[in-house]
From TrEMBL:
Identification of the protein by name: Heat shock protein HtpX
Source lineage: Archaea, Methanobacteriati, Methanobacteriota, Stenosarchaea group, Halobacteria
Peptidase M48 domain boundaries: 104-344
A Gene Ontology biological process term: proteolysis
GO function terms (MF aspect): metal ion binding; metalloendopeptidase activity
InterPro entries membership: HtpX_protease, Peptidase_M48
Family: Belongs to the peptidase M48 family.
Transmembrane segments: 12-32, 52-72, 195-216, 228-256
This protein's UniProt keywords: Cell membrane, Hydrolase, Membrane, Metal-binding, Metalloprotease, Protease, Stress response, Transmembrane, Transmembrane helix, Zinc
Organism encoding this protein: Halogranum rubrum
Amino acid sequence: MSKDTALTLRMLGTLTLVLGANLLCVLAFAFLLRPWVSPVTTALTTSLPGALAMLTEWTLLVVPLLVAFLWLQLRYARSELLDDVDALDVTRETHPEFVTRLTRLSSQMDVSRPTPAVVDSSIPNSFTVGSPRRATVVVSTGLLDTLDGDELDAVLAHELAHVQNRDAAVMTLASFLPTLTNGDYDVFERLDERLGGASMLAFGAIAVVGYVLSLPHLPGTPLSVTSLVSFVLMLALTVLLGGVALGLLASPVVFLSRRLSRRRELVADYAGAQATGNPTAMVSALQRLEDTESTPTSDLRATETVRGLCFLPHGFEAGGETEFRVSARSHPSTAERIENLRELTASV
């Protein structure tokens, strides 16, 4: 299947906005860091003319920081999304049929096999997170109990299409900013859990490093009242303005992610059906999962964690306690998805 232009454009739009938000943060950090690394960057650019030297110096600062920011966000978002549904990695020994099918289809679709994971939930569903080199395909026990044979292959091929098209990576990355601003995840609380209660020590160390990096821009001598008060005021202003800027950027990220999600589901249905050579199995899987009695009929807690990751928009109810739900507005209707497959079905 050739590349879908609409999907590519929506991915680029979403990614551009995410990159722009990160660039604002990186530029602020690079401004603080520059006086401390200027001896190195100046030595590297000394033979260049003035304007080009300045541009090259900022590029040497900003690009590595931007890559690091994006890498950390991708890893954090992937980890939190998997934790949110209590997804557990599985092996061929524990889930032989699931892992065997995923391995075979990955080879068939020429993608690196994602990590297989299972959610203990009676609600049949699936989703994919992560980058092409470090993706995870998550299915519920309800999905494995409800589907088998060609229908299960169709759903797994759909998830692998998200890896193949790289839209899973874009959606995973795009989930970070909305979760940071709408309170779905308390980053500081999660950090405290991971550090075993030592978060205050970590924040203190970060504050000290920030103060040291800020010294060239602060009035007064180091550790003077003037420099300390100026640092606190600068930090408060940065947090305030940064919070406002991130909040303003979060809404368009959600909007673009929702538009991307609707298109990517149609493309993944089509690509998965092509990969298995059995579009009727994709259609029957959609119909079976849509009609299953396990599908929840009420939205107990609509989350803003991410838009449109799941195969169907009703999400999971992991362990009977932790819900992972996605707004139905992020998905095309099942009827639309089946109509999208009709042309392919007729040609087989």
